[in-house]
Amino acid sequence: MPQMIFVNLPVADLQRSTAFYAALGFTRDARCSNEQAACMVLSDTISVMLLTHDFWATFTDRRRVDPAREAQVLLCVSRPDRAAVDAITEAAVAAGGTADPCPAQDHGFMYGRSFADPDGHIWEPVWMSAEAIEKGPAEMSHAG
């Protein structure tokens, strides 16, 4: 079985957040979802657990930050090409998110943008040239 990652995100409105991620192409896994949490699957190895604030508080004693004002993590996810980077960012805006809270990046071999979900969690969709990655850091430092 491949190693998986489950990103846990506290959300103010579980239904709104579930709809937002569904609009981006995530699918809801009913086996791991209830009135306090929604498991939204991006791929065979990546899932996002949307947790109500009260449920989130049962996992940690640490203070929950307001992602609309503070950044604790930037979630970067690969896309197959530049058009897919733009497409998911545009889908996020159409579903109630915010485009480009971080500066867009275009280095020739790598292209990335960002969007914030309705709670303010920042995602960075990125495309990287497989050829540039194969050639290594020297190629990437001179590209674009």
Automatic annotation (TrEMBL):
Record flagged with keyword DNA damage: no
Keyword Lyase: yes
Annotated ranges, domain VOC: 3-128
An MF annotation (GO) of this entry: lyase activity
CDD domains reported for this sequence: VOC_like (cd09012)
Keywords of the record: Lyase
Listed PANTHER family: BLR2408 PROTEIN, BLR2520 PROTEIN
Name listed for the protein in its UniProt record: Lactoylglutathione lyase
Native species: Marinibacterium profundimaris
